[in-house]
Amino acid sequence: MRVVVTGAAGFVGGHVAEAAANAGHEVLAVDALERSASPGAARDNWAALAARPGIERAEADLVTADLAMVADADVVLHLAGRPGVRSSWGAGRAEARRDNVTATRRLLAACEDAPGGRPRVVVASSSSVYGSAGGRPHTERDPLRPASPYAVSKAEMERVTAEAAGRGLPAVVLRFFSVYGPRQRPDMAFHRFIEAGLRGLPLPVLGDGRQSRAFTHVEDIVAATLAAAATDLPPGTVLNVGHPEHVPIGDAIGVLAGLIGVRPRVRHHDAVPGDAARTWADSGEAARLLGWSARIGLAEGLASQVAWHRTRQPAGPLPRAEQPA
């Protein structure tokens, strides 16, 4: 099977491209490195893909490039986009719309017009489209209440995907919940916490630390993405992909501190406008339709991420922070 992975230099995209190649698929990895929100990490991921058998690479901006690359694809895994709640305010609003909405609309149009037949398309969305969860986990039937420009752009991505599905494109949406694990983006919370802890610095927490998240390990995200790629789902299907437990950030810091072997010291910073107080996933539909459920608990998952950080040379100053979506 020929698989096109957009955003392949990114955190999730890189893992998905590697896993698809390991499964024996012919993979075209696509990314626009000059538009990356984390250029250093993107360059490292991109270079690593070059050494992987079964992966061909193409640098392309989905907003401006000729997208004939999808012409002979069997599956397109659309993981490219502009991440970040905090960075989407102000001037970032236009960037989020460009890289999330406009890019997705062009890619879907190219898939609809593919001369070799329409590929199956899997589009990555975010739990941020729901806003904050209340006293129960979010289901796919819940109304969307995006509270930041980033979340609005993801909801709009879903809308244009639904429109394409209504025209017959076999496109589905996966809503990812708070992805973490090895090679996590440097601006994300666990990456920053671990780097700070390993250097003996206070852990930078946005807000009071009582926010909770359905932290979902990248290996579980990869498994759900490849399952969706291999399953004949009804066009327009939307599925939550998240761990069923929601864990307060303060509790997660306690787990991390034990893994690193330090007494946790925290420095609080202003909360992020539009940041969800709680993300909480009901992934029952993914279990029913894909046979998927999250299998990696937080302690095991964080141990894998800490082990990866210990293999790295100390980086420069910690980048501007983002809470996990």
Characterization of the model:
The protein is α/β, with parallel strands linked by helices and 325 residues long. The protein has a domain at 2-177 and 218-241: NAD(P)-binding Rossmann-like Domain (Rossmann fold), CATH 3.40.50.720. The protein has helices at residues 11-22, 39-50, 92-112, 149-166, 189-198, 218-230, 249-260, 284-290, 298-310, and strands at residues 2-6, 26-31, 55-59, 75-78, 120-126, 171-176, 179-180, 203-206, 212-213, 216-217, 238-241, 247-248, 266-269. Strands 3-2-1-4-5-6-11 form a 7-stranded parallel beta sheet, sandwiched between helices. It is globular, with a radius of gyration of 19 Å.
Layout of secondary structure:
Elements: E1 2-6, H1 11-22, E2 26-31, H2 39-50, E3 55-59, E4 75-78, H3 92-112, E5 120-126, H4 149-166, E6 171-176, E7 179-180, H5 189-198, E8 203-206, E9 212-213, E10 216-217, H6 218-230, E11 238-241, E12 247-248, H7 249-260, E13 266-269, H8 284-290, H9 298-310
